[in-house]
Amino acid sequence: MRPDEDDAHADFSVLERVCICGWPTDTLSIDHHGWSYNYATSEHKNNAPASTTHTLLLFIPGNPGVIHWYTNFLTRIVQELGRGFAVCGLSYAGHGVGEDVVGTSDDHDRRFHGERLDEKLNEAMHIHGQKDMRVPWTMDGQIHHKIEWIDKILGDWRNECGCEPNLIFITHSIGAHFVQSLLLRRPDILAKTKHIIHLMPFIRFDPPPVKKLLLSSTAHAQKYTMPLVMILARVLLPVLPRQWIDSYLKQVVGMDSKKGREITMDVFSNPKMVKNHLMLGLQEIRESHWAPEFHMKDLRRMKRQSKIPCNVYTEYLDELSHDFIVRLGQIDQAVSFCVKRIKSCGQINVKHFRSRL
Hints:
Number of domains: 1
Helix content: 40-55%
Family: Belongs to the AB hydrolase superfamily. LDAH family.
Shape: globular
Distance between the termini: 36 Å
CATH topology: Rossmann fold
GO molecular function, one term: hydrolase activity
Organism: Stephanodiscus triporus
Strand order of the largest sheet: 1-2-6-5-7-8
CATH superfamily: Alpha/Beta hydrolase fold, catalytic domain
CATH class: Alpha Beta
Keywords: Hydrolase, Lipid droplet
Radius of gyration: 20 Å
Number of helices: 14
Subcellular location: Lipid droplet
Order of helices and strands: EEEEEHEHHHHEHHEHHHHHHH
Number of strands: 8
């Protein structure tokens, strides 16, 4: 099955926009076996034996944090895992397609608000028609956003099913940092977590000297670089033919996924989305969360020295690039890797070893 085919995915995938931390957010839920719980509609569908243990995969994407790219990737994982698995994923606050997602002046539905945000984050959100830009533009705001989303899912699950699922996190890029941070802040969520898979983890900043100088200089000169970027985005995006952009993404960038290219063009056609993406990305660089390829060698060395426990598994996939999600062949490889790791995670004896986040 190819990721871009129109098939039965729509029968099992629910993409809904809800309000989290004051921001309309695109959320995805997939349950191919129709017996657990529809997270988007709060509809309980318990057609399986009561003794069956359900495992929920929680997916956190990388920046620019748009869940639409990953729909078929996550759908295929659930399909291959079989009965007993479902998945939920979400976009970042302020990231997505549409003015109501990335804008800054729309009113919002407060029914999804939680009470765990600190006072500074809550203060601006309770002002009518305003959104706190510390949520989409900062690492801390995005972490709070993910915590409120998880609390909503687990709360609905408890109310409808009277129990909670096992959790497995799958992340991409900076999503690894978000998950590690939220699990440190919330030991109760960590206690429910069975396994964590980080794809291309963006967790440390130490690139080659020239690249380091360029990225660091750009990130720390934000007040000068951002206005220039936004002027270019507002001038160029409306006038460039979509066909030209599509051809560039396919022929030069190498995106052979047609759906991936369409989502890319939709996402970055809005200058406000470009700004939200870059503002968060520049903070990522300033706070040093970038992992070079040789980071894998460091992890293996630390594992041999017992500085990392044996239940932390590391693997380097030679043909997998950071933007694998828009490359059809690489999606196949990533799906196979995730399914293999999830199926084997129960075989690891963790009695004497615990991962240190």
